[in-house]
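Recap from last week: sequence in, structure out.
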Amino acid sequence: MKQFLGYIILISAIAGLFSCSKSSSTTATSDVARLTSFYLTGPESETGLTSAVFDIEEGVDTGLVTTGKDSIQFGTSLKRIVPRFTCEATPGSVTLQLGDTTVTLGTSDTLDLTKTPLVLTIISSDLTKTKRYKVVPTVHSVDPDLYLWETLSTAMYPVEDEEQQAVLLGDQFLLFCNNGFSNRLFTSDDAATWTQGTLSGLPDVCRVKGILSNGKKLYYTEPETLYTSEDGVTWKANDYKGKDFTMETMLMTFNDTVWLVLRDTLTKSLVLGQINADTIRRTGFELDENFPISGFATVEFESLSERRRAAIIGGYSQNGECINSRWNIEYAPTIKGLYHIMNYSIEQPEFSTLTGVSVIWYKKQLMLFGGVNKDMVFRKDPIMISEDEGYTWQVADTAKCKLPETYTPRQKQSVLVKDNNIYVIGGQNQQQTFVDSYKGRLNSIDWED
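Predicted structure tokens:
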């Protein structure tokens, strides 16, 4: 009987061993050693890591992990970084070779990834397969927010004491000058080398700051005559005598239309006008008596809501007063009348009076150059920036955007944008007319967003 009980105990023990063995075999192993994702984290101060996207290129026994779509943001430190990764199967182990040191990775290892080579090695959970990935975390070597400025010319043409206006017509720069008695025209392909050309059809006493270009044609106006030119050399006079308005000044190109300021001959009030096929028509917009008629700057841009807008900044009113104004015109086809006019200066009265400024739309922000206040004091900060469509302004960071040392504060300069380059041409102060030109460019202007 005892012998029989012994057999029973032995059989039960064996059965128990077999059942444990069967249970332990449910822990899966794999011969797959393949990386499926890789990214980096680090201190909260290193915000550039969050936008870094890594591409994984697979080979048979090796692979490459590199920043593909985006390099790591300029200035990001790789001194204290935690590598994160996922694998196709649970790995047996993952190691990272940092120069001469090999580290077995966990979930919170803070490492110095500036050491090379960087090689990630994955060993499959059944310890039969190994795959090595070369890791290349590229940090931008160029500051994307840095503006690179250069002096193109310090003597574009023989200087005279005269008013200037530079415009773009097609791909060519045209610079008009008038000394109070006659006009001069200079042309250039690069804003560095200029050639004097002939000029006919414009009045001898021409306020050249009023010349406007829509890129294909030029416009200039006197009270009863509209002048147009397709080449900047030969101008045609169009008579508008006897109308119910006179022409005060060209204003801007906006929404594929040329705009100008008209004066009602009966009420003497200012109204907006438009030019289509060299024909002027009045709009229904009567302008405020403090709307600028000279010395202002205009710029067309697209708002954050993807509506077309134009800003009219600074200048002199019809009463000769240097004004604090930032008018904003929006094309809003869902609103009756299509256009909506706002005056930001009412809500922000501390914005200084100014005239002789230039404004451009560049990299989704407004940039304001030069100018003086009502007392003819030159602005000490040559460039101001607005990131909210002209509602508020701040001085440009001179560590990122500083004009060359040869540049002198001025007003009435022409500022143009061509092929993502900014061109600053001419201008004047109380002592002289400038005949220099400059070109600037934001490092990241052509980078993909």
